Amino acid sequence: MSSAPFNANSSPSENIAEAEADAGTEQTRRTLLLGALATTACLGCSPPARAGEDPPGSDERPQKGDLLVFSEGDQEGKLITAADLHVGGPPVHAWPKDPQTSVVRSASRLNEILVIRLDPAELDEKTRARAVDGIIAYSAICAHAGCPVTAWVKSDVGDKEVFKCMCHNSEYDPRAGAQVVFGPAPRRLAALPLALADGSLSVAGNFIGKVGGAQPG
């Protein structure tokens, strides 16, 4: 049986040093192997939260008590008050904001809201019940293909101004629950009941109706 070569001229201290070096090498190999196994086992683990990720709750639908903040423009992020809205429009675009955590629910585009102030006398009964001082709110996402509703223009079929989606020209009358008055949209915009909290607008209930488009586009 063969054996490892032995140097007869080596001193006992040299032999001990070599044995210790071999033991250290073996220990290093074991450490590397265990590290590799641990890494493989954690491939399915959830990654830790990273800076820049959306905070918890930012993609949830508007909740009762949420405040409304501007979603664009120079006042982006600021609370919307009744004084910010002129009777007759134009509408402003808003996000809901959790007053407890200060989280703005902007991680989902389906949470963007159109807010407008109209003469309460122009609103039908159901719309007036959801309004506060003539201020009403609707989803800003077109019910046709999910495009943003961005325009406040005179209707193609009447003399009143309406919400208009410029993608496929669907029009909605906010005075009558945002019902469709022109274009291919299959249903009205989802409505959001409102309340006033210390002069600022707040959400009084969940969306009424389906939010989002009926087809991709």
| Rg over CA atoms | 32 Å
Mean pLDDT: 83
Separate helix tally: 2
What overall geometry do the principal axes of the alpha carbons give? globular
Strand content: 15-25%
Structural class: alpha+beta
Spatial separation of the terminal alpha carbons = 78 Å
List the helices and strands in order: HEEEHEEEEEEE
State the strand order across the main sheet: 1-2-3-4
How much helix is in the residues?
Answer: 10-25%
Low-confidence stretches: 1-8, 12-17, 36-49
By DSSP, the count of extended strands is 10
The profile of the biggest β sheet is: 4 strands, antiparallel
Characterize this entry briefly.
The chain is an alpha+beta fold. The chain has helices at residues 12-41, 125-130; strands spanning 67-70, 92-97, 113-117, 135-139, 151-154, 161-164, 171-173, 179-182, 194-197, 200-203.
Helix and strand layout, with pairings?
Blueprint: H1 12-41, E1 67-70, E2 92-97, E3 113-117, H2 125-130, E4 135-139, E5 151-154, E6 161-164, E7 171-173, E8 179-182, E9 194-197, E10 200-203
Entry keywords:
alpha+beta, 4-stranded antiparallel sheet, globular, 217 residues
Report on this structure.
- With 217 residues, this protein is α+β, with helices and mostly antiparallel strands.
- The chain is 17% helix and 20% strand.
- A four-stranded antiparallel beta sheet has the order 1-2-3-4. The protein has a four-stranded antiparallel beta sheet with strand order 5-6-7-8, with no helix packed on it.
